[in-house]
Each structure stands twice: as C-alpha cells, then as structure tokens.
C-alpha cells in the first residue's frame, strides 16, 4: 500500500474508480475497518445456514429411502393386482 492508503498498482484514476467498491473502501478506511472485520467474523461464526443444510440432507436421504422402497414394492404390488384382476374376470 502507498502512504496515501491506496494500492501502488492502481495508479490510473480509471482503475481506482473500478476497484473503489464499498467493501474495498471498508478495508482501506481506518474508521470502517473494525466494523468490517467484526462483520466478517460474525459471518464466519454464524452456523444457522449449516443447520438448514443438515436438515435438507436428512430430508433428501429420507426421500431417497422412500423412493427405493416404493420402487422395490411397486413391482410386487403390480403383480399382485394383476393376478387379482385376472381372477375376478
């Protein structure tokens, strides 16, 4: 970083404007830096999304088991109903 607080690679005003986003300014600006670091730490520590993903994986596993059982039993049921239908005729 240069003494003015910018990066030496961004010498042209056009490149500075292209990289001057809010996140970039938060890391450069000394007043906003602690808030941005706290926000990143809070995001990394948040595990609510992980819990939702775990429940989603459990639901997917249960649905796959149900599909496998229905496919296995479906052929046997079809054979049974076919024999019942032929015996009623």
The Cα radius of gyration reads: 31 Å
Quaternary form: single chain
Main structural class = mainly alpha
State the end-to-end CA separation. 89 Å
Dominant shape = rod-shaped
Low-confidence stretches: none
Summed up, the domain count is 2
Helix percent reads over 70%
Provide a count of the helices.
4
Average per-residue pLDDT, rounded, comes to: 76
Q: What percent of residues are in strands? A: under 5%
Major beta-sheet overview: none
Number of DSSP strand runs: 0
> Which H/E pattern describes the elements?
HHHH
Give a verbal description of the structure.
The chain has 89 residues and is an all-alpha fold. The chain has two domains: 1-46, no CATH class; 47-89. Helix content is 76%, strand content 0%. The protein has helices at 13-19, 22-28, 33-45, 48-88. The longest helix is centred in the last third of the chain and has 41 residues, at 48-88. It is rod-shaped and about 85 Å long. The protein starts with 12 loop residues before the first helix and ends with a helix. The model has no long low-confidence stretch (mean pLDDT 76).
Task: Note the main attributes of this structure.
mainly alpha, rod-shaped, 2 domains
Write the layout of secondary structure elements.
Blueprint: H1 13-19, H2 22-28, H3 33-45, H4 48-88
Summarize it:
With 89 residues, the protein is mostly helical. The protein contains 4 helices and no strands.
């Amino acid at each position: 970083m240069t003494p003015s607080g910018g990066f030496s690679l961004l010498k042209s005003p056009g490149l500075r404007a292209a990289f001057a986003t809010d996140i970039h300014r938060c890391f450069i600006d000394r007043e906003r830096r602690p808030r941005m670091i706290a926000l990143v730490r809070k995001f990394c520590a948040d595990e609510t999304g992980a819990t939702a993903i775990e429940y989603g994986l459990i639901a997917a596993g249960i649905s796959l088991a149900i599909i496998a059982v229905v496919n296995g039993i479906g052929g046997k049921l079809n054979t049974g109903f076919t024999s019942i239908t032929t015996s009623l005729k």
